[in-house]
Each structure stands twice: as structure tokens, then as C-alpha cells.
Amino acid sequence: MVIITMAIRVRFAPSPTGLLHIGNARTALINWLFARHHALKGEDATFLLRLDDTDLERSDPLYAKAIEEDLAWLGLTHDQFARQSDRFDQYDQAVARLKATGRLYPCYETPEELDFKRKRQLARHEPPIYDRTALKLTDEERRAFEAEGRQPHWRFKLLPEAIHWDDLIRGPNDFHGSHLSDPVLVRADGAYLYTLTSVVDDIDLGITHIIRGEDHVTNTAVQIQLFAALGGDVTHLHFAHSTLLVDVNGASLSKRLGSLSLATLRESGLEPMAINSLLARLGTSLPVEPQLTLDELAQNFTLSALGRASPRFDPAELETLNHKLLQVMPYDQVQGRLREIAPSLTEAFWNVIRGNLRTLEEACQWEAIYVGHITPLIEDRDYLGQALGCLPGEPWDTATWGLWTARLKEITGRKGKALFMPLRQAITGMDHGPEMKELLPLIGYGKVVERLKG
Ligand code: GLU
Known about the structure:
3-stranded antiparallel beta sheet, about 45% helix
């Protein structure tokens, strides 16, 4: 028996008009995990990166580059790449087709006139839907507007039909063409708007699942009609709209997005897998736990786990998760980066200190303890002298600390913090850290003697 599975093609489509932030990263991750989940099952699944850069004034190649770098840093590599600014011919053709079929019509209202109409409708408690005045214009009236120097913008004529889709996250959605405004697809300056370009691309690139934020739900209603008008196969198209992240108080993140850019999060020393581990589970009832690889997250990923409530993004939770991730991070996963920040740190030392790191950068402090460049904290020289006197000779192992401090306890009568802390402070220069019984054999006899002497 031959089982034919439909190829899966998803896309993440940021506009290069700014840096990616945590909310964009979540959309990218959800798309990536969805494709990867299917690929791991042996299905044909593709993740596309599409740069929505038709707004030539606001788009910036520097942002485009930063987006690619941020995605690569998160590990969200793409199988295919598209850039809207390379595809103007396709948009020209789509516009010609819509004009030919009477679905795109010229409008001459100025922004002020439209604003006035909208305010009047709202004052009358009517929905602010475009009144289609332009559809009633005669050729002569159009010519008169153009003679005045007005350039038309172009609206897509929605059909007065029910629009329905079963959203893979939100469940059934129902709209009606009569209750929506005909969207502008081409501005008066000739610029193509996202509603158009996105649909043209989603058709041409064979997208099967459009997974994006809930702020696009109304766009979807309109775009479903546009897909059909451009010959797209809507019956095989799936939509999923994820809820938008909010802050810990439930407020929109929009004002704080600058500080929540991936660039800022990366600079603050967070691990990409901490961000991925949190974003993959936010808004689901699954536990947030550190995962070392994207594949672990992809294994059981399903859109249906994403709930309807807005997930709260708490930077403190991300920091905690980063700490937990480092605790279980194997040496080979950090070795490359450690070589740059703490080159002499061995695997054995990494395994002992990793539980104490909030960021990988902090490994530098511990490297200093390892290689000997620290200033011991010394308050009571006599006590340290006594400690030196009963320090066991090498070879050392994890039992050495216990033997040493038991002897020291007998000699001095000290116990608890008074017994241990001065030793830790002298040997590490700090009053907290990994267990001394683990550290001692790694630091070694020579350096311990040196530090106890101050
Ligand atoms: N460029 C759009 C955005 O950034 C893409 C939305 C979509 O996924 O269709 O919001």
C-alpha cells in the first residue's frame, strides 16, 4: 500500500522594518517546529523565510541581515528563501488579473475624506466599512478626478459571502464579506500592500499552512477571498493564529518590544535554547523545561497544544530557565564558545561549575579560580594557618574536603559556616559557588596552599 502524504510548506514572513523581538521569534519558532515535527516523521516539510520588503521606504537591508542572523542564532534555519522585492512582476500580473475580472476598482478619496467618513460612521454607531462610493463613479467623474491630479488607490471587491475556516489553533471562524471593508491592495503611489503580496506569494510558493499571530485574523478573512480570486486552492490551505504574548501584568508587549529584541536578549547573555524552550511551551499546558535541542521540542510539537489565552512573557522566567539550561548543558555543546571566553576551562571543571552560572559569560570568573588569578578573601589568617597545617597531601579526590574539614573541626572546635566559609573565601575569592568537595581536587594542592597563605 502506498501512503501519500501531502507536502507541508510553512513560511515565516517578517518585514525588515525593525529588529525581531520575542513575539516574532515565537511565530518563527512555531512555524519551524511545525515543519520540523513533520520532517522528523519522514514527511516532506519545508520552512521558508520570506522577507516582506515591498515597503521600500521603511525596509532596510540592515534589518534584513539582522533578521537572518537572529534566526540563525536561534537555530531556526530555513530551507528556502524569498524576498518580495524580487517579485514585483508577479504582483503586476496579479493586479492585472484582478482588474480584468472586475475585482480591483479605483478609488479617489483622499485620506482626509476617508477619515471623515469613518468618523461619521462611528458617530452613528455604524461599523467603519468602506461605503463603496468609488464603485458608483461614472467614467466622466473618474476622468475629472484624474484631471484634478488625483491618483487612484485600488480596492479589492469582496463578495457578499460567508467566509469560514477551521483554524488549527482557534477552531471555527466565521466572517461575512458584507461586514468587511474592501481592502486597499494598491496605494495611490502604486505601492503594493501586504494583503496582496502575501497572498500572491503564498500561492506561488505553495504554502500549505499559514501560521501567524492573532493580529492577522481579519486579514485572513479577506485573504481567503483573494486566494480564490487569484486561482489559489483555498480548500487545501490551513490557517493557525496564535495568541499574542502579553507582559506579566497582562498588558500588551508592544511598548516594550525594543528591550525585548532578540539582539538585546542575546547581548544579555541568554542561551538561544533557553528562549526556544520557553517560547515553545508558553501558552500551552505543557511544563516549561530546559531542552538542549530544537529537535527535542519538535518531537512532540503540535499546534493543538497552543491555547486561546494570551501567554504571559516574564523575562525573569527566561533568566531562570537559562540557569536551569546551563545546569544540564554538556561540555561539547559549549566547548566552542568556552574556548573564546574561558579557554583553559576543562570538561571536569565545567561539569562542576555549570550549576552556578546564570549566563555562560560567568564561566570567566570560574576560570580565574581554576587558573589562579584571584584575590583570596582573607579575614582570619590564624585560622587559615591552622587549615594549612592539616591540609592532606595529594592525591586528592572528592573525599579530601571532608577529611580535611573534619580534622580542622577537631583542632579548632569550629563548625558550620565558621568552619567552611573562610576556606571557601580564601580558595575561591567568593562566598558562594559549587560544592567545595568537587572544586578542591580540580583547583589542586599547589594553588590551594598559595591561597591559604594569601
Ligand atoms: N509581514 C507580515 C507581518 O510581519 C507577515 C504576516 C503573515 O505572516 O502573513 O506581520
